[in-house]
Structures are given as structure tokens and as C-alpha cells.
Amino acid sequence: MSFLALAEARYSTKKYNADKKVPIELIDQLKAILRLSPSSINSQPWKFVFIGNEQLKSKLAAASYFNEAKINEASHLVVFSAADDIEKFEEQIQQHLPKGSIDYYHNFVKPTGSSQIKSWMKNQVYLSLGFFLSAAAEMGLDSTPMEGIQVDEYRKILGLSHHQPLFAVALGYRHSQDGNQPSLNAKSRLPEPAVIESF
Ligand SMILES: Cc1cc2nc3c(=O)[nH]c(=O)nc-3n(C[C@H](O)[C@H](O)[C@H](O)COP(=O)(O)O)c2cc1C
């Protein structure tokens, strides 16, 4: 399928088939794909937690407002978090990045202050979301990106010490009657001239 056809076919799933689990080989591929996600200066300021365990998934579902039912029905939940301990992050880049990248960080990112540094790190995690959603679609999986989660509760439940959860993605196979699938609810987007210009 072309990438355009995938973009037309993927959608945010609102109801999952609770009886259909994603095979472990596909979960392993998604882990490998996330690890390869690009980031500014290859900074990789992130942590991805995959949850297939039903008990833990339902604990997180209970901290997910209106998303609770779909998380319980979905096969897996993936939690995306950004580094929020700047000192630890700087140790990591010091060990793993070439001098040019470290210099870029110290000359252009660090002087902007801790709030902007954290915002820059979060931007990298959002980029990995786009990568992940596209990969899942290509693998024939349905998904739902969700910012509607209690991030501090998630952090406690998952015991994350140096990373702050930003959003989660439910993963699985759609319920045949999910009313949000494009065949029942046509995709809605701004018209092309409103968002794209060419010269
Ligand atoms: C960062 C982000 C957060 C979102 N949060 C939620 C959410 O909490 N619950 C939900 O059902 N959909 C959520 N969505 C889905 C959007 O509403 C959806 O992507 C948008 O309406 C476009 O529809 P489509 O994904 O079906 O093409 C989120 C999407 C993104 C990218």
C-alpha cells in the first residue's frame, strides 16, 4: 500500500476487539522501530513503556479519563515519556554523542533555560509518535494516540524516576462496529489551501 493510502486508511480507533491480541513479533518490531526514531542531534530524550499485562493495563486505564474503555479493550498500551532530569540527560549525551552534537546542545539548546530544554525534549518524543503511528498502520494494526491520561498517576504507577509521561497509544485491532473507522466516519481535515502553500 502506498504511504498516501495508509494515511487515508489509518484513524484513531475508539473501540477495540478485546479478543484479538497483537502478536509478540509485531510488538518486537515496534520496539525496534521506536528505537530508530529520529531526534535532534540524535538526543533520544525518551522512554517507551510497552504494557501487555492486563492488570497493569487496567490500572493505567483507570487513570485515563474518557479513554478507559478503549485501553481496557486494546491489546497493548504504549506510554511515551520525555526525559525531565536535565542533569541525567546531559550525562547521557556526554557518553553517547559525538563532540559536534554535544557542542550544539551546549551552544544552542542549554542557554535557552530549563523550561525550553524540556520543551525541546518533548518535541522529540512527539516526533516519535508520528513515526510509531505510521509504522503501526503499515503493519495492519489499529491505534489511538491519547493525551487524555493522568500523567502524574502514570508516572507513579510505572515508577519512572527520570522521565515524565506525555501521552499513551492504545494498540490492537478495531471492533467491527467502531463508528470512527473511515468507512463509517469520513476523515475530516482542513482544506489543502488552508494548510499548504507552494511557490
Ligand atoms: C497528541 C494527540 C493526542 C490525542 N489524544 C486523544 C485522546 O486522548 N483520546 C482520543 O480518543 N483521541 C485522541 N487523539 C486523536 C485525535 O483526536 C485524532 O488524531 C484527530 O481527530 C484526527 O483523526 P484521525 O486520527 O482519526 O485521523 C489524539 C491525537 C493526538 C495526535
Automatic annotation (TrEMBL):
Keywords for the protein's UniProt record, in alphabetical order: NADP, Oxidoreductase
Pfam families membership: Nitroreductase (PF00881)
Family matches, as Gene3D superfamilies: NADH Oxidase
Chain ranges of the Nitroreductase domain: 8-173
Single annotated GO MF: oxidoreductase activity
Keyword Membrane assigned: no
Name of the featured protein: NAD(P)H-dependent oxidoreductase
Provenance organism: Arachidicoccus ginsenosidivorans
